[in-house]
Amino acid sequence: MMQNDQFLFQPVSQPVLRVNGSDKLFPVHRIYCVGRNYADHAIEMGHDPNREPPFFFQKNPDTLITGNGDFPYPSGSNDVHYEMEMVIALGKGGTDIAAGKALDHVFGYAVGLDMTRRDLQGEAKKLGRPWEVGKAFEASAPCSDIVPASKVGHPSSGAIWLNVNGKERQRGDLRQLIWNVPETIAYLSTLFTLQAGDLIFSGTPAGVGAIVRGDEMHGGVDGIGEIRTRVV
């Protein structure tokens, strides 16, 4: 075990999520996000909704906002969008995980927002560049507490929704996922060595749009929970 005086400067603290009904904390390793995993969202973003292989991008663990904290409007953008998502929390890792065994690796589920600097993402797309500037900025991953699968099972259906200032902006159903949870985990495990502590943001339904300072976002996934955050 390294002592603090061995470091040149104080190491950053371990990002964690609370676990509903427990005093234990979930240490976050990596955050993976699935792109265009609802057909209606693929269509609204101008893409073919057919079942093409899934693709992924990452957010850094320290981009999490927990406890319904405020979302600070980021610099460098005038077009910041919300994307409401179910979040999968892994309690066990591995590579080349079979879809039939994938749910055994899930510790629980949460509700999250994939906040996006859409203008910067759009510029990156045009230039064929990575999306990090549009996706992995500070505070870009508001997330609720985790609800253990031992309490809620493994939801494969149920409403996913988001209101902004009390008006509904997004509504879909988990049944509409192009790649379901077991398939997503199995495919992702062929590309990365998954570990306990990984989060997977599973995709967003149609209705994404811009927010401005002063807006309040309130959304949820039936059977899992809700999230609320104010734009400041």
From TrEMBL:
InterPro entries in UniProt: Fumarylacetoacetase-like_C (IPR011234), Fumarylacetoacetase_C_sf (IPR036663)
Record carries keyword Protein transport: no
Top-rank taxon, per record: Bacteria
Cleaved signal peptide residues: none
Keyword annotations from UniProtKB, A to Z: Hydrolase, Metal-binding, Pyruvate
GO molecular function terms attached to this record: acetylpyruvate hydrolase activity; fumarylpyruvate hydrolase activity; metal ion binding
Domain Fumarylacetoacetase-like C-terminal: 31-232
Enzyme Commission number(s) from the entry: 3.7.1.20
Stated name of the protein: Fumarylpyruvate hydrolase
Organism the protein comes from: Phyllobacterium myrsinacearum
